């Protein structure tokens, strides 16, 4: 039986959608910070993703104009971009073939801290997954593992474009970039900062994320079976994703977050209950984001917004690319 709060939720939802009157742009200006060699498989596959992303499910037709910010180069005009994507510190596939992996280098992110802070917009997604690497490898937990297959299964073929790729690392990556890039100012997407030598920059003294993440990250143990609860499943950041699809990439997530003021858990940890493996924050509305909560009997739970919450924060509901009011 539907509770009265469910209808309050619908009323708030309809009113909130009416506040977002500006349609999102057809393309995003994506700045990708990377230490990977220009000839590496990593760079080649990320470039391929940028060319086909608008055709992928749940992408809402958003295309990317991709620009690489190579480690060691001066910072570009950050105000010219919708989102800054920061490569993970897992350096697989980053060397020029057939050479060794490149050494992670986040010196540009640290050196240009003030410029990033000055351009930083109202949306940030931080994940303990190296989903950028796993996306180009095709990891998707719903693809059956086959010990007799050349890659032992567990991966979509071809990576990126096969329909079964979305519910896995690919969807986690694209949802994050499209959501963060559809706000105001420079959105931020940071993949895991470890674990190769030269990485672990999140809490470096010159990191723009230090004050937010210091003392809140636990790198002990990997999360192979993350949780998306039904409320989190309404987030555009989880469009088309399931816990099974995000599981068993060996490894899916490499750390956990304690609760952090201003951030909400987007994907929870089963390894450490009460912690998260992906978190996000949005300042699109002046109201603090109170989140969704359960209401109803055990057999009739509903995901509702508190009655005193008068505006929809676009972190909560809608499609992956739906912008806040005033988005570019």
Describe this structure in words.
The chain is an alpha/beta fold and 328 residues long. The chain has one domain. Helices cover 20% and strands 17% of the residues. The chain is built from 7 helices and 11 strands. The strands form 3 sheets. The chain has a 7-stranded mixed beta sheet with strand order 2-1-3-5-4-9-8. Strands 6-7 form a two-stranded antiparallel sheet. Helix 5 packs across helix 6. The longest helix has 16 residues. The radius of gyration is 19 Å and the shape is globular.
Summarize the structure in short.
Helices cover 20% and strands 17% of the residues. It has 328 residues and is α/β, with parallel strands linked by helices. It has one domain.
What is the topological layout?
Elements: H1 4-19, E1 27-34, H2 41-52, E2 63-70, E3 83-86, H3 107-111, H4 113-119, E4 120-127, H5 131-137, H6 166-180, E5 186-190, H7 210-213, E6 217-218, E7 256-257, E8 264-268, E9 276-282, E10 293-295, E11 302-304
Parallel strand pairs: 1-2, 1-3, 3-5, 4-5
Antiparallel strand pairs: 4-9, 6-7, 8-9, 10-11
Helix pairs in contact: 5-6
